[in-house]
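Input sequence (140 aa), recorded before submission:
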Amino acid sequence: MDKLPESDDAPVVRTDFSDPGAWEAICKAIRTPFRLGGYEVLANVDFVDDPSFEGLTPETLPSAIGTGFQRRLVFLVDRTTLTHQEHPILVVDLFEKRRRPFRVIPSEMASVENNLSLANLDYRDFVRNLGPDGIFRGFR
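Predicted structure, token format:
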């Protein structure tokens, strides 16, 4: 398996190639600024659209991480993301392997990426605010 590219931003990795239109819609939604206190906030991400990562899961993700990879988070766009009405993206924390991944809707990606990357909030803060289906839709 290829290694994820080095980047200053968190990768959003396409792992399912069955619906190009859904992938494009998800990327567009992630690029849409998040409004926070009168400011527009963007998710600092790089989109990885490479068929060599097809089928990548949280369990197989370590084999795609090179020795110099410094990002804490990886976002996976899998079959569930593409087929679910809300397109929830899988959030994987690489620093704490015992933490279970959770899902986030595209409009909340900037909140998750910014706050976890800057350590403004902890992973647990998001987990505590998951819906019963394991999807983060914002703070309640």
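Checked by second reader. Strands lie at 10-14, 34-36, 39-41, 45-48, 73-77, 89-93, 102-104, 135-136.
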